[in-house]
Amino acid sequence: SVLVKGGDKLDEEIYRIKLPGPPTEIGEGKPENQNHAIIFTRGEALQTIDMNQDNSFEEAFKMRNVLEEFHKDHHGQRRPTILGLREHIFTGSVSSLAWFMSNQETSFVTIGQRVLADPLRVRFHYGHPDIFDRLFHITRGGVSKASKTINLSEDIFSGYNSTLRGGYVTHHEYVQVGKGRDVGMNQISQFEAKVANGNGEQTLSRDVYRLGRRFDFYRMFSFYFTTVGFYFSSMVTVLIVYVFLYGRMYLVLSGLERRIIEDATISSNKALEEALATQSVFQLGLLLVLPMVMEIGLERGFRTALGDFIIMQLQLASVFFTFQLGTKAHYYGRTILHGGSKYRATGRGFVVFHAKFADNYRLYSRSHFVKGLELGILLVIYQVYGSSYRSSNLYLFITFSIWFLVCSWLFAPFVFNPSGFDWQKTVEDWTDWKRWMGNRGGIGIDQNKSWESWWDAEQQHLKYTNIRGMILEIILSLRFFIYQYGLVYHLNIARGSTSILVYALSWLVMITALLALKLVSMGRRRFGTDFQLMFRILKALLDIFAAFLAFLPTGWAFILIGQACRPCVKGIGFWDSIMELGRAYECLMGLVIFMPVFILSWFPFVSECQTRLLFNQAFSRGLQISMILRAGKNHKDKPKTT
């Protein structure tokens, strides 16, 4: 690695350093670059700035004022070791998503960090244009921690390190630096996934443990709720929804809820209904936008803040933030359970383009679609088996916010996808998804080309997990057997019997279907091409038979347990059956999610409304003109017939 200085005639080499190996293979990329670059720096202060950031000439004149902050004593005894600066988000006008993220980020880098620094005193370093006391940090481990995986969110660890070693972090708002945020749905979700993974690794790190032990009580609480506690609370919120619905399903299938409602000795549930209605309003996530409204109100007036808030709700901001709640909960929970987080390159480019259905399915299948369908099935069961004795108002009050969450998790990627309801794009997406589902996988086959390769890549976290993670994964999968146990006694074939033999018979049917599926997977390999169509039809019939008689959740439980116990399942020769069963479930999930998109694409006004919803007026007009020009070009290219 060479430091070169531009001279009058030739570039002048200052000095050269031999590296111990490829820097990015030793640790995480960005912190390794920072640790390597710090040896080429000089002076007493060092500014770290991201590539997606900007600056203006007049702001540079304030740098000498900022540097003087290093000489000011704070609280009468401590001089700062990190100076935090304010940021200005300049990508908010691109689309509604960019506007949501811009407002959210603006509230964090202004009013949020202002309060974190003073009075809470728990501001750290967040990858922003902070200025470090160089002499303090190079003698205490540098400005970055770069260990693989654990230091995925490398920036905040430098703040942890500085605080643990006696440093002090401040925040100053008379200087601001420009910043570009992600503007596309998939970009934003990958960034949120990276941050959630990083917070999961922070939860498992020694740094957070040591800070928690050394802070006083109030500062410890402030530290918890402004770092890993926010993601832990998001995960608990989603878990509580699961516990609530599984408890409701138990009440309705066991007949306990009916007995409670019809019991004359139990007073009316009017107070409970009103409390649940109030709870439903707050569960929409409206309180999460309060800092955003406060910051806009302080800077531009509360009338403007109220107007922006109303417009954001009309542009489905609640749908977007509810969707991101699922992203945070999934990736944080997976990291806590199995570890193994990885860097996700979002690009941070100006990417406003149509994402194919297969791309959305690969990105959100496990984090949102599976969970959304599970909650939807729970809600349907709760409605179907309790509608005969329960008032509709009670069901609406209890489940409205959860239905909102289910719809957000299932369809937000398509609502916020440019040209997501364009008929031509929808047809192309369907063709691409069918090709992806049918392609065979194998060594060297990219997961974007084959469902089998993607399915195998989705299980990487299970290959390297420990025995604790594997056992917990199996225990969590056992919840799907509750459906079969509860529903089988409500079938007409049971004739009101509560004997355990009815449940045993349902297992016999399920095992028979799995064995038949095993025969199909064997026949697919052993018979010639003339029999392939017959086996595909037979496999489809068996999938439908198994789904409706032995219930879909039970089959999904078999898939999850089979993935967790992959070596054992391969040893007994049932891995191909698990894969074929998984393919059938993926096809079914894809159809359920794709059908509403397909139907809405029939109506041209839906696509126009979506374009107006997502983008500003100039961009929407340009997009409509491009569609007209494309249609005219296609019409001109058609061969004329006489």
TrEMBL record:
<dbReference type="GO" id="GO:0000148">
    <property type="term" value="C:1,3-beta-D-glucan synthase complex"/>
</dbReference>
<dbReference type="GO" id="GO:0003843">
    <property type="term" value="F:1,3-beta-D-glucan synthase activity"/>
</dbReference>
<feature type="transmembrane region" description="Helical">
    <location>
        <begin position="582"/>
        <end position="603"/>
    </location>
</feature>
<dbReference type="GO" id="GO:0006075">
    <property type="term" value="P:(1-&gt;3)-beta-D-glucan biosynthetic process"/>
</dbReference>
<dbReference type="InterPro" id="IPR003440">
    <property type="entry name" value="Glyco_trans_48_dom"/>
</dbReference>
<feature type="transmembrane region" description="Helical">
    <location>
        <begin position="540"/>
        <end position="562"/>
    </location>
</feature>
<feature type="transmembrane region" description="Helical">
    <location>
        <begin position="500"/>
        <end position="520"/>
    </location>
</feature>
<keyword id="KW-1133">Transmembrane helix</keyword>
<feature type="transmembrane region" description="Helical">
    <location>
        <begin position="223"/>
        <end position="245"/>
    </location>
</feature>
<feature type="domain" description="Glycosyl transferase 48">
    <location>
        <begin position="8"/>
        <end position="472"/>
    </location>
</feature>
<keyword id="KW-0472">Membrane</keyword>
<dbReference type="GO" id="GO:0005886">
    <property type="term" value="C:plasma membrane"/>
</dbReference>
<keyword id="KW-0812">Transmembrane</keyword>
<feature type="transmembrane region" description="Helical">
    <location>
        <begin position="470"/>
        <end position="488"/>
    </location>
</feature>
<protein>
    <recommendedName>
        <fullName>Glycosyl transferase 48 domain-containing protein</fullName>
    </recommendedName>
</protein>
<feature type="transmembrane region" description="Helical">
    <location>
        <begin position="394"/>
        <end position="416"/>
    </location>
</feature>
<dbReference type="Pfam" id="PF02364">
    <property type="entry name" value="Glucan_synthase"/>
</dbReference>
